[in-house]
Write a structure and sequence with these properties.
This protein has one domain: 2-Layer Sandwich (Alpha-Beta Plaits), CATH 3.30.70. Strands 2-3-1-4 form a 4-stranded antiparallel beta sheet, with helices on one face. Strand 2 and strand 3 form a beta hairpin. The chain is 24% helix and 31% strand. The relative contact order is 0.28. It is α+β, with helices and mostly antiparallel strands. The two termini are 23 Å apart. The longest helix has 14 residues.
Length: 91
């Protein structure tokens, strides 16, 4: 699994996050996508790497600008579940 972190300019609210997440899901097969307008980030978890130019081609027509793209190996781990009682699952 690959975690792709994208720095985004132009998101201003929760609807912007949703709009960006939808654009990512329409264009790529991802396991998980989470955007944050307060941090200006979009994080993807995917099995296949996605080229930078393909990410830009999918994101920039929506009105947001890609500032930077960074990748890291997710180590084959599934996305971590978070929630109110997540601390109980830790061992």
């Amino acid at each position: 699994m690959t975690r792709i972190m994208i720095q985004i300019d132009g998101m201003r609210c929760g609807m912007c996050e949703s709009h960006l997440n939808d654009a990512i899901r329409r264009n790529f097969r991802v396991k998980k996508v989470v955007s944050s307008y307060t941090k200006g980030t979009c994080v993807l978890l995917t099995e296949a790497d996605i080229p930078d130019d393909a990410l830009r081609a999918a994101i920039e027509p929506t009105g947001y600008r890609v500032l930077a793209v960074r990748r890291e190996d997710a180590g084959g781990k599934p996305p971590e579940k978070k929630g109110l009682f997540a601390f109980l699952r830790r061992s």
